[in-house]
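pipeline: protein-struct stage 2 | run 1193 | Peptidase family M48
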Amino acid sequence: MRRRHLVVLCVILLWLPMLSGCRTRSFLSTKQEIELGKEGAREVEQEFRVDTTSPDAERVRRIGESLLPHMDRRDVPYSFKVLISNQINAFSLPGGPVYVFRGLLDLVGNDDSALACVIGHECGHINARHVARHISTDIIHSALISILFPNANVQNAVGLVDQIIQLKYSRDDEYEADWRGLSYAYYAGYDPNGLIRFFHKLELVEKWEGGNNTPEWLQDHPLTPERIKRAEWIIAHHDYRYGH
């Protein structure tokens, strides 16, 4: 092994203890996150039609923007858009873009507090830099593999854009995003119990469909009794610590 590769390997090995969980520090800059989000948004909006003029679109923008003053990260250009699809789903991209599917809006109905908690949850992923952390971990792993196995076909960071929407967050990521989302919604004047109501609606949908067609939001955000209990504990103990 060349001396330069040995030095790089030693540096990477120093990072490895940090890769055991979701708390890997991101070494992507804010500018890189924003650019990655823009690229991801272009791909999303080529695949799905974006609703920009309906009352639903205005509602999502209004609620999303009402959460902004209560977030702890304000260095990215947030945007809130509706995608015309019956999927029950919502997701965010690094650097600010947040998307809500029409199917999820139909499920939420007129419950603005539930919608605020869902949007707040997605903003929580942005604020916690969850995607950037996952990408940083993948970059380090790829670099290590390329040094140890020079002939291996390793995916680079740019290729990760296609995987962002399908990213499976860790359980700790989801708990943190729930906590942050509840905080943003509460301080913006919404009822944090909206998240609990939304969870129960998702459970009903899954039962109606016999578990064969699990809603997209459940697939991306595994719903467990423990997750609901944690949200209920936060609300009961008034522990809205994130961002405040």
